[in-house]
Write a structure and sequence with these properties.
Shape of chain B: globular
Helix content of chain A: 25-40%
Distance between the termini of chain A: 31 Å
Distance between the termini of chain B: 57 Å
GO biological process, one term (chain A): L-alanine transport
CATH topology of the largest domain in chain B: ABC transporter involved in vitamin B12 uptake, BtuC
Oligomer: heterodimer
CATH topology of the largest domain in chain A: Rossmann fold
Strand order of the largest sheet of chain B: 1-2
Number of strands of chain A: 10
Largest interface: A-B, 47 and 38 residues
Order of helices and strands of chain B: HEEHHHHHHHEHHHHHEHHH
Organism (chain A): Teichococcus wenyumeiae
Largest sheet of chain B: 2 strands, antiparallel
Radius of gyration of chain A: 20 Å
Number of domains of chain A: 2
Strand order of the largest sheet of chain A: 6-7-8-3-9-10
Family (chain A): Belongs to the ABC transporter superfamily.
Pfam family, one (chain A): BCA_ABC_TP_C
Structural class of chain A: alpha/beta
Protein name (chain A): ABC transporter ATP-binding protein
Helix content of chain B: 55-70%
Shape of chain A: globular
CATH architecture of the largest domain in chain B: Orthogonal Bundle
């Protein structure tokens, strides 16, 4: 499969601490790639590098989108989103005082802004802003339906239950029409039923059948919930202490000794020598 | 008996509490009110004591505190919704009529019989602050950037008009947009260094900026006249018709065949500032329903999330600063033409503080709240003029009361900009104040 994201020797240092050490992997287009690893393995740091919240110390990040190669490690934070990478946050970051619908319209800011004629035209009522806003509301409605939030469209995002907030955040990210959706622990705090529904939603997003008019979207996710990860991932990358220790299909990862050792801890030094050899 | 039993400690506690409050009041009022230096018949100062006044004040504090405590206890014992909650429904219905009623009143004010020069001047003053409040509301209320130096843009606008008129002889109507543009330019100039700052740090830098502008105006004597200010600033004309006191050919009164009257100019100025304020309001309301305004509010709610959605924080912040500053500049140009004299004295920090107080008391982001707060604050200042030195006390007490009763301002709730079915007001508790 064609790659959507190529990570090449990505390194991130904070002073003397190396959080991510020369990690290389490829996320395939139209696939769900999961990054797992114990706490402190450098997952979120790597994620923040990809989504532009940190500038990597070394290595390269290349997004393959629409026949073009975009070097993400050189772009400013907001330009990465424009290049086609959308993200959600570990601790949900919605615009709590704005309604669910408004949240999704803010996500379409760039597209809408272009139709306002530098903001002046729309104030005077000159440009084709009305039509653009109708289209944006249509897209937002489609995603609200996809996430089962259409009844809560006019409620403030802050008043929604936690699971709904998580879904709304995904919908908001999807409204930027990304090529790659990055999810930071999307199943954290969800009950088993909600987790299953989330898996369904993510698969639908991957195949482009989640909402009306949605294009297929590749997904990169960090997750602790192994049930979710093993159930929906096409490909898994395992990090430990900032380095990649394994990379493969869910079945291969489950059988990988190094992964088991990293999660459950090594028995003693001898065993560690064996597994390393 | 069982009912009376828990009453007793409540009464005692209230008495103790009131006594404590009275003690503090006594400590404060003894030197402040009790002692007063007056000029005697020979011109020498002598100390006058006013112990009865002190006693009266302390008694009022004691009684007030005692009653408040009792009322609190009584309310806590009663079950059911509080007074505020029960009033919320009718208040909301009433609120819908307040804005149109206020607008109608503002439009018709000069036509109401019995409204004289003084009332119109007061109206102009209030409307100037309404406009400044609405301008600052863009920066503080919508974008959530705490700006303590807003008066700087007011000053830039005023001096822009004064200097352009003095050196180049440009008319008010040409200078008005120029003053707005120059103020917007300074807004952007201020915006750049403070882009990375948040909250308290942003407030301090903007405060410093306001002082810098004032000090430059004060010390650049060759250009601005320094502390002497600029006088003889030309008055605005009505489409080329001047408001001259004696009438004469080419004047407003002559053209319309009216008896020359100084009231004409005041009425004209009144409608001018009303139009400028309504322009500010109209632009803000329009922008709120558009991507730029939504991006401002989103930025107030969560800046990091904005960045992750591809919104350029730099330009979004700068547009807020520039637009807020522009309306401040318009108001400044109006102030200069109305007063015909400006000096750095008019642009001290207290002005910034008053404008910010209007926005905060009115409710961050609420246009109606800001208008009411400006009316109450500035109008109230005038109404209580008879109280002389007590004016500040009444004023301060009113502000404290509003903050206790409505900590998020008079209108703290937020109306959504768009809705699928019906727009439901978002309660103040949900809406973020912004962290700079």
């Amino acid at each position: 499969m064609a790659p959507i994201l190529t990570v090449e020797k990505l390194t991130m240092r904070f002073g003397g601490l190396t959080a991510v050490k020369e990690v290389s992997f490829t996320a395939a287009e139209g696939a769900i790639t999961a990054v797992i690893g114990p706490n402190g393995a450098g997952k979120t740091t790597m994620f923040n590098c990809i989504t532009g919240f940190y500038r990597p110390t070394g290595g390269s990040l290349v997004l393959h989108h629409g026949g073009q190669e975009v070097a993400l490690h050189r772009l400013a934070g907001h330009r990465i989103a424009r290049a086609g990478v959308a993200r959600t946050f570990q601790n949900v970051r919605l615009f709590a005082g704005m309604t669910a619908l408004e949240n999704l319209l803010v996500a379409q800011h760039r597209k809408l802004m272009a139709s306002t004629g530098f903001g002046i035209g729309a104030v005077l009522g000159l440009s084709g802003y009305k039509a653009a806003e109708q289209a944006a509301i249509g897209r937002a409605t489609a995603w609200l339906e996809a996430c089962g939030l259409i009844d809560r469209a006019d409620d403030p995002a802050g008043s929604l239950p936690y699971g709904a907030q998580r879904r709304l955040e995904i919908a908001r990210a999807m409204c930027t029409e990304p090529a790659l959706l990055c999810l930071d622990e999307p199943a954290a705090g969800l009950n088993p039923r909600e987790s299953t529904a989330l898996g369904e939603l993510l698969r639908a997003i991957r195949d482009g059948r989640a909402a009306e008019g949605a294009a297929p979207c590749s997904i990169l996710l960090i997750e602790h919930d192994m049930g979710v990860v093993m159930g929906i991932s096409d490909h898994i990358v395992v990090l430990d202490h900032g380095s990649k220790i394994a990379d493969g299909t869910p079945a291969a990862i489950r059988a990988d000794e190094k992964v088991i050792a990293a999660y459950l801890g090594e028995g003693d030094e001898d065993e560690h020598e064996d597994s390393a050899a | 008996m069982s009912l009376a039993h828990p009453r007793r400690p409540v009464l005692g506690a209230a008495l103790k509490d009131a006594g404590l409050a009275a003690l503090i009041a006594a400590g404060l009022f003894l030197p402040m009110v009790g002692l007063r230096t007056d000029v005697g018949p020979t011109g020498a100062l002598f100390l006058r004591t006013r112990w009865t006044d002190v006693l009266l004040l302390v008694a009022i504090v004691f009684a007030g505190r005692f009653l408040i405590r009792l009322w609190q206890e009584w309310r806590a014992e009663r079950h059911g919704p509080s007074l505020q909650k029960r009033l919320a429904g009718p208040m909301l219905r009433l609120g819908r009529f307040v804005a149109p009623a206020l607008l109608l009143f503002a439009l018709l004010l000069p036509l109401i019989p019995g409204i004289g020069r003084y009332e119109l001047d007061l109206g102009i003053l209030v409307l100037t602050y309404v406009m400044l409040g609405w301008g600052l509301n863009i920066v503080v209320g919508l974008a959530g950037l705490l700006d303590l130096g807003y008066v700087a843009f007011y000053a830039v606008g005023a001096y822009s008009y004064a200097l352009l008129a003095q050196y180049f002889g440009l008319s008010f109507w040409i200078c008005l947009p120029l003053a707005g543009l120059l103020a917007a330019f300074w807004g952007i100039l201020l915006g750049f260094p403070v882009l990375r700052l948040r909250g308290d740090y942003l407030a301090i830098v903007t405060l410093g900026f306001g002082e810098i502008i004032r000090l430059v105006l004060l010390n650049w004597v060759s250009l601005t006249g320094g502390p002497n200010g600029i006088s003889g600033i030309p008055r605005p004309s009505f489409f080329g018709l001047a408001f001259t006191a004696g009438g004469g050919p080419g004047s407003f009164a002559d053209f319309f065949g009216l008896e020359p009257s100084p009231t004409h100019r005041v009425v004209f100025l009144y409608y001018l500032i009303l139009a400028l304020a309504l322009l500010t309001n109209w632009v803000t309301l329009r922008l709120r329903r558009q991507p730029l305004g939504r991006a401002w509010e989103a930025m107030r709610e969560d800046e990091i999330a904005c960045r992750s959605l591809g919104i350029n924080i730099t330009t979004t912040k700068l547009t807020a600063f520039a637009l807020g500053a522009m309306f401040g500049g318009f108001a400044g140009a109006f102030f200069a033409t109305r007063q015909a004299f400006i000096s750095p004295e008019s642009f001290t920090f207290i002005e910034s503080a008053i404008i910010l107080a209007i926005v905060v008391l009115g409710g961050l982001g609420s246009q109606l709240g800001v208008a009411i707060a400006a009316l109450v604050l500035i109008g109230g200042f005038e109404v209580f003029r008879d109280l002389q030195e007590w004016r500040m006390l009444v004023f301060g007490a009113a502000m404290v009361l509003i903050m206790i009763w409505k900590p998020r301002g008079l209108v703290g709730s937020r109306t959504p900009t768009v809705a699928l079915s019906e727009k439901r007001t978002i309660s103040a508790a949900m809406v973020a104040e912004g962290r700079g």
